[in-house]
Design brief:
mainly beta; Porin; 14-stranded antiparallel barrel
Length: 384
């Protein structure tokens, strides 16, 4: 094993130990940072989000950083570049993912960028993957490979903030008892301030992949958001004022809430509730003397594993990929997951979600297509 792989392997283990020590520190903030904001590849998307144990295509490095190395390290063409276009209901204006990777026997580097814009706001994601081999092949089992993923995201969105009217109430005194009564509470729709909300997040994932842990069975393990830090900024602040007076032996309390142009900033460690552990397998079956290959992936995502105050949430993702004639792929995916992917809370409501897709490989180009409910995407990859 090369010096590069040994050094990066020790770095990966060090990060795991530090993550365990850092859990208590990361409790402070509660940012808007959820599974919807995790970039994924179209191959994985067409399989219901599964595929952390399937090294196919450069964009799979977004699902499991270890696959950046596994995908190209043993092939003559060590490099790949990809460009795609996606669309869904949250980012309906534009979604453009792009990636490039290069690998040799000593290690691999992957760089990715994704721009999204729509009703959910604007999202820019930059990713750098560093991957290599942790241990060599033992008997029939394949080598263990790992990857570190460093992700920077900038999220921006604007919303209209309506000023609530003042709320009047009175507290009666003199009878020995006090009673708090609200006279009215309403929202003033005649005035509104535009709030610009920005979130910047820097986070790290750690992934592992091993082929042939059993006959035709591959295994993966991915820890998402092991470490994370975010910065938040709002251009509007909520201000509340309260005055009181005595009228006819009654104390009248008048409170008023309104939004003012005042920049608010916050920063801190990413909450441990957003850490997730993903374990995956992919089982291969060969038919017609190897001319047909069936791959059945299964991924299980676990949220709340690192936070005792949050109930654990299990998300199941699976599918079926069929390879025909060496270069044509048909994919089907199923997920028991939240349909509103902007939520990652213990109270999320999971739905049955269906996906599909296809792929065509004509050396050195591959084209992948994916579709689901109110979403679709296409990606082209050039291997060199």
């Amino acid at each position: 094993m090369s010096t590069y792989s040994k050094t990066c392997g020790m770095a990966a283990i060090t990060f795991l130990v530090f993550m365990g020590l850092n859990t208590a520190v990361a409790e402070k903030p509660d940012p808007l940072f959820s599974s919807q904001l995790h970039s994924t590849s179209l191959i994985s998307r067409s399989l219901g989000g599964a595929g952390t144990a399937m090294p196919m295509g450069v964009m799979q490095g977004l699902v499991n950083p270890a696959l950046t190395y596994s995908y190209r390290s043993q092939l003559p063409e060590r490099g790949a570049v990809a460009l795609g276009y996606n669309n869904d209901t949250l980012y309906e204006k534009v979604q453009i993912p792009a990636g490039v990777s290069f690998a040799n026997r000593d290690g691999a580097l992957g760089l990715f960028y994704e721009a999204k814009s729509g009703s959910a706001g604007d999202l820019h994601t930059f990713v750098a993957n560093f991957a290599g081999r942790l241990s060599e092949q033992v008997d029939a089992q394949g080598p263990v490979e790992y990857g570190l993923k460093f992700k920077y995201q900038r999220i921006g969105r604007s919303e209209q903030m309506l000023d609530p009217l003042r709320r009047d109430g009175f507290v009666q005194s003199g009878s020995g008892q006090t009673t708090d009564t609200t006279l009215f509470s309403a929202v003033d729709t005649s005035t509104a301030l535009k709030n610009n909300h920005y979130i910047r997040t820097l986070s790290m994932d750690l992934g592992f992949y091993q082929s042939n842990v059993a006959t035709n069975l591959d295994f993966s393990l991915v820890a998402r958001n092991l470490l994370g830090y975010n910065w938040q900024r709002n251009s509007v602040a909520l201000v509340e004022t309260t005055v009181s007076d005595t009228i006819n032996e009654s104390i009248v309390v008048i409170s008023k809430q309104e939004y003012e142009k005042s920049e608010e900033k916050d920063r801190g460690w990413l909450g441990s509730r957003y850490r997730a552990l993903v374990t995956g397998v992919a089982y291969r079956v060969y038919l017609s003397n190897g001319r047909i290959e069936l791959t059945l992936p299964l991924d299980i995502e676990i949220y709340g594993l690192f936070d005792r105050e949050v109930d654990r949430v299990y998300i199941f993702r699976s599918g079926l990929q069929t390879r025909l004639f060496e270069n044509f792929y048909v994919r089907f995916g199923f997920a028991r997951a939240p349909e509103a992917l902007s939520e990652v809370l213990s109270t999320i409501s999971k739905e049955n979600m269906i996906f599909g897709g296809a792929g065509l490989v004509v050396d050195p180009v591959r084209i992948d297509f994916s579709m689901g409910k109110d979403q679709w995407g296409v990606c082209a990859t050039l291997e060199f």
